[in-house]
Amino acid sequence: MSLIVVGTMAFDAIETPFGKSGQIVGGSATYVAWSASNFVRPVNQISVIGYDFPQEELNALAARGVQLEGVQIKQDEKSFFWAGKYHLDMNTRDTLDTQLNVLANFDPVVPDSYQGSEFLMLGNLMPSLQLSVIKQLKQRPKLIVMDTMNFWMDIAMPDLEEVLKEVDVLMLNDSEARQLSGQFSLVKAAKEIRKMGPKYVVIKKGEHGALLFHDENVFFAPALPLEDVFDPTGAGDTFAGGFIGHLAATKDISFENMKTAIIKGSALASFCVEKFGTTRMKEITISDIDQRVQQFVDLVNFDITLTNNI
Ligand code: AMP
Prior knowledge:
With 310 residues, the chain is of the alpha/beta class. The protein has 11 helices and 13 strands. It has helices spanning 28-36, 55-63, 127-136, 150-155, 157-164, 174-181, 186-195, 235-250, 255-272, 279-283, 286-300, and strands at 3-6, 10-16, 19-26, 43-50, 66-74, 80-86, 93-99, 119-122, 143-147, 169-173, 200-204, 210-214, 217-221. Strands 5-4-1-8-9-10-11-12-13 form a 9-stranded mixed sheet, sandwiched between helices. It has a 4-stranded mixed sheet with strand order 3-2-6-7. Helix 9 (255-272) packs across helix 11. Adenosine monophosphate binds next to strand 2 and helix 8.
């Protein structure tokens, strides 16, 4: 089993109602890699960083089985930078700043050693770059999962439509699903989005869980009710990493197994939000993850006896 992950490796500055993070390491591909590497190794990473990205972060990822041959280092440029501020409910946030820096001229190159990977996770990134990676693969992966965000819908919609034609699973949050489809009902939104290409659509609803749509089937997974949500940044990418990591580890891309993958993704995301940045992802063990998955099972498991109501 092998997985390619594409996305940003970045610096973030996060403000929540509880405090400010200062400049910390983030990026869509960083979170996906930390999460997916719990289930599958190697994770074949494709990204770009500047001279300022900390070597110890690269070492920590490498020690987790993350291959960095596809991560370009631009010695005279700064890494991608994103700043965001969360509202009081922590479900919504404003982007305060996006500095593309190294991303502005990024031309991803798939190393030969990554060819033949069976799973591809297109983390949040310019759609044209996501497409470029797909086009470079000599053999189409068994499953292509894609994440995106409103930023790209606003500035790169034609490119986004091109990539959508090529992917199997699209992940996005509820407001993005509404923006992309022009539909308020999430059921109708998923139907519209499936017409654009992806056979499966996962709509994330923050603390209200996630929905998986395929044909006439719908599956709902709750988010774990947590006492404290400290920093939601990266929860979506961590969810994606758990989802594709589980599918890659089991090599089973059936709808039934995707349900389990959604629960694993949700469990991982529930850890991510407990501390700033990737801090919590670096601490957890497989047994922590198993215990959390069990909490999900207990949360939604109930017996019911149907009675004949007159
Ligand atoms: P999430 O909270 O899962 O949506 O992901 C947050 C991460 O996405 C942060 O660590 C940012 O560095 C990264 N990010 C923010 N904006 C973008 C963007 N336009 N393209 C790619 N990555 C981004």
